[in-house]
Amino acid sequence: QVQLVESGGGLVQAGGSLRLSCAASGSIFTINTMGWFRQAPGKQRELVAVITNGGSTNYADSVNGRFTISRDNAKNTVYLQMNSLKPEDTAVYYCKADIRRRIGLPTSSYWGQGTQVTVSS
Fold it and tell me: How would you classify residue 90: left for phi > 0, otherwise alpha for psi between -120 and 50, otherwise beta?
């Protein structure tokens, strides 16, 4: 079994900052790409940022320059530092990890349970 556990969400005023964390645990051989997605009420889930196991990153245009994704491979953890938050950043944030559980098995995608981020104006 593999679990992704997120933390760090909450309520913040516009212009403020939050840092999300997502730790993967369980039967893990390697973790490839890790990322953050978000889903606002009535909207589809969208990509926020991703990072490869080599450290290459990609961001949605809406967060580029304000959010920073990073990872600690020794801890199987991915982070999302969110600065200059706006009310339109309000959403449930989900982490995703592409994990190979054992040699010979294909990589599968796993999702966290989500953490609420609310930005007040």
Answer: beta
